[in-house]
Amino acid sequence: MAAVDCGTNSIRLLITDVDARSGNAVREVTRKNTIVRLGEGVDSSGQLSPAAIERTRVALHGYVDMMLDHGVSAVRMVATSATRDASNRDDFFAMTKAELGRVVPGAVAEVIEGTEEARLSYLGATMDVEAEGPVVVIDVGGGSTEFVVGDKAGDVVGAVSTQMGSVRLSERFLHTDPPTEAECAAAREVVDKNLREAAEKLPLAEVATVVGCAGTFTTVSAVVQDLPEYLPEKIHLSTLDADDILATTAKVRVETVEQRKARPQILPGRADVIGGGTLIIDAIVEFFRAKAGIEQITVSEKDILDGIIAGLARQRASFEA
After folding, report:
1. Residues forming beta bridges with residue 137, ordered by sequence position
2. Distance between CA atoms of 20 and 317, rounded to whole angstroms?
3. Rounded to an integer, what distance in angstroms lies between the CA atom of residue 236 and that of residue 249?
4. Residue closest to 207 by CA, chosen among 197, 216, 199, 196
5. Residue 2 phi/psi, 5° resolution?
6. Rounded mean pLDDT of 18-47?
7. In what order do the strands lie in the sheet with 10-18?
């Protein structure tokens, strides 16, 4: 089974072997992440650029080839922030239908509702996390950041999607290389406002565990650990101290894009927008330290992709039964 998540900055693939009778994942076959910058310029133009759609098509075409090579029988692709408001979204969805149809006729990307996105993200991100008490899963994307709070039983209590992301903040505010203190301050003001509004809707101050997932968090984990390259097995379930995170993000922010590219843990397509992402992470770290006394953040390599696979597997098991 295959899951594809297409966001503002990257498109990602997970292929997993699943036991048809039990619905349990047996083996992760492959997990890929390609920077395509689908949302480039969409914040100001309201449109997905033809070049961005083509970059995404090329990446998806390669993913579909992998699905065919591995005999994938079920696939679900979700698209998030970049496609929600684009005036030419039909061009994008027609492209996904043409590509995914090579695996399952009629398959097409779908923009899922916020509650469904939250449920799938929480299910995937907390799959391997052992936590006592309420958990918040935070997914920092390119165009938006999601906060999902779940209880001890693993049920989602509430979720909020905020209009702040690494690409969105970088395009709006961080125009200098490296960004100036004034640019960072302006972006941080927006981040703090979004975080305050999220806290008004969710019991963030009551959580016992903070789990960060998706590219910005996982990249920061790799840099904090000073890994020789991006190593998912070292990143998954890594526990980062607040002071180490803040010291690392401060260093990354004052580097030029070329200096960031030289870091083996940062993918080239993420180097120019990671600055915006670090401002979001700083605000998150400082908020939970002040409001909930939390000094550590757990980083999960698993996320909405794993949640999608779990959902597909349950559907298949139910059908087989």
Report:
1. 148, 211
2. 6
3. 19
4. 199
5. -130, 145
6. 83
7. 25-35, 10-18, 2-6, 75-79
